[in-house]
Amino acid sequence: MNVQQKVNGVWGSRWVFILAATGSAVGLGNIWKFPYITGENGGGAFVLVYLACIALIGVPIMIAEVMLGRRGRMSPINSMLLLARESNASQWWASVGWFGTLAGIFILSFYSVIAGWALQYMSLSAGGEFNQITGEASGAAFSGLLADVGSLVTWHTVFMVLTLLIVMAGVVKGLGKAISVIMPLLLILLLVMLGYSITEGNFAAGWDFLFAFDASKLEWNSVLVALGHAFFTLSLGMGAIMAYGSYMPEEKVSIGNTVIIIAVLDTLIALIAGLVIFPIVFANPAIEPGAGPGLLFVSLPVAFGNMAGGQLFGFMFFALVALAALSSAISIIEPTVAWLVESRMASRIKATLGLGFAIWFVGLGTVFSFNHWADYTLFGKTFFDSLDYLTANVMLPLGGLLIAIFVGWFMNAGAIVEELGPIDQGGYKYWLRILRYVSPVLLAIVFVMSLVG
Ligand code: TRP
Predict the structure, then answer these.
(1) Which of 13, 25, 318 is nearest to 177 (CA)?
(2) Cα–Cα nearest to 73, from 11, 165, 164, 163
(3) I want to staple 336 with a disulfide (CB 3.0 to 4.6 A). Which of 16, 101, 117, 209 is the partner?
């Protein structure tokens, strides 16, 4: 059974799995994307829908993905093949894995460009570029960065190289240790920043914006964005969590409880990031909550530039954002690398390099969509916007839909129960019912709506 142990590795313990999966989940999605899409979608009502999506759809599907990986013990493509066979279902279920590969290439291509911004902001902070900066000047600095193709490509390249180095060495080796330092540090620094926002920012306005529920602000499209983001932030729908699940040790652990820990940590970090950023935004009239992808990069320098030790804190903060992005990026590319290695198509090094180059190349499209190609749009979306929309709102929900249907309706029930670990009967029935009826219906609606607009 334990093919994976020989091929792609196995985590040292359940805790290493939790750290790695949290490392995958916590990343730019929490610190960069969540605040800016919350700003674009009007705040409180959006946050509430997002929390509901995490609890009702994200957590059940995450349990399903980990369970599938743990049962299949191979890359998502091969796990799905094996499990479909075990359950006498069609081989076409492997398409979940194929879709995941494509989604992963698209996601990492822009993810790396944004992570590159964090790398560049590390060096700008350290160099004192933000000292005493105003909201206007910070906005101008960010626009300057977007126009500078050379820097964008350089930092995108640096980030891709770092990602590939870790993946080449094997995800299991060393990763657990790195994450167990990065995650606590990130949390501490976020709390330091929270202290700044509470004392220096307009905390009441920030809090209200995030938590005051105003249903009139909610549009149908915001619901789509919230659901898509639940998938993105938990790394669901493309096999990343399935691949990590396949490296889980044999010991009997409850997958349900493990997943809840990860989802709670991920959600907390996103909410804290929101509580750091919005009070700074509302204290600076020059910064708009709906400023878009630049929100994090325009607002935080104003805080760092005006606080004691800001140069150092700014450097550390952006370094931690980059590290959090790194621990997510490796999980985006891992499923496909695992598949190439397992199928004996390439060595780990060659598989990583080949795939990495393709992703880097697609990433140039995102770089150009902020400058040379800014005016080339399809349905009003630039290349970057289109990739972001297509992956989060179409591909990941589609992957989640297929996973829910497979586990809910096709997979052998005995295998499911065996793999879930110690389970609570009530919780199990509730979970299965959600996967069978609730997730597919909601996801199908979202999927159709995001296609028709
Ligand atoms: N969850 C990560 C974040 O919030 C990004 C990520 C990692 C991801 N792996 C993924 C997104 C797989 C979608 C699918 O930053």
Answers:
(1) 13
(2) 11
(3) 101
pLDDT tens per residue across span 397-438? 999 999 999 999 999 898 998 888 787 888 899 999 999 999
- Given ligand 1 and candidates 106, 107, 231, which is best to mutate, with the most ligand atoms within 8 Å of its CB? 107
Is residue 329 within 8 Å of 115, Cβ to Cβ?
yes
312-360 pLDDT, tens digit each:
989 989 998 999 999 999 999 999 999 999 998 889 999 999 999 999 9
Q: Which two tokens stand for residue 385?
A: 């916007």
Best substitution site from 332, 387, 394, 403 to test ligand 1's pocket, by max atoms within 8 Å of Cβ? 332
Provide the token pair at 53: 């999506």
Q: How far is CA 334 from CA 110, 246, 289, 342, 355, in A?
A: 17, 12, 35, 12, 10
Residue 250 to residue 248: CA distance in whole angstroms:
7
Cα(214)–Cα(301) distance, integer angstroms = 30
Confidence at residue 174, expressed as pLDDT on a 0 to 100 scale: 59
Q: Is 232 in the pocket of ligand 1 (CB under 6 A)?
A: yes
User: In terms of Cα–Cα distance, which of 261, 273, 238 is closest to 30?
Assistant: 273
User: Total domain count for the chain?
Assistant: 1
Amino acid at 350: K
**pLDDT value of residue 6:** 53
**Ligand 1 pocket check: which of 36, 331, 396, 403 to mutate, most ligand atoms within 8 Å of Cβ?**
331
32 pLDDT above the threshold of 90: yes
pLDDT of residue 1: 40
Say whether pLDDT at 245 is over 50: yes
Question: What residues are paired with 39 via a beta bridge?
Answer: none
| Domain enclosing residue 35, as ranges | 3-452
Contacts for 304 with CB less than 8 Å, ≥ 6 apart: 125, 130, 310, 311, 313, 314, 317
* 381 phi, psi to nearest 5 deg: -115, 140
Q: For residues 64 and 404, is the Cβ–Cβ distance under 8 A?
A: yes
**CATH number, domain at 375?**
1.20.1740.10
Handedness of CA 137, 139, 142, 143 (dihedral sign): negative
pLDDT at residue 132, rounded to an integer? 94
- For residue 398, report the distance from its CA to the centre of ligand 1, in Å: 15
pTM greater than 0.85: yes
At residue 162, the 3 state secondary structure works out as helix
Contact between 248 and 11 under an 8 Å Cβ cutoff? The reply is yes
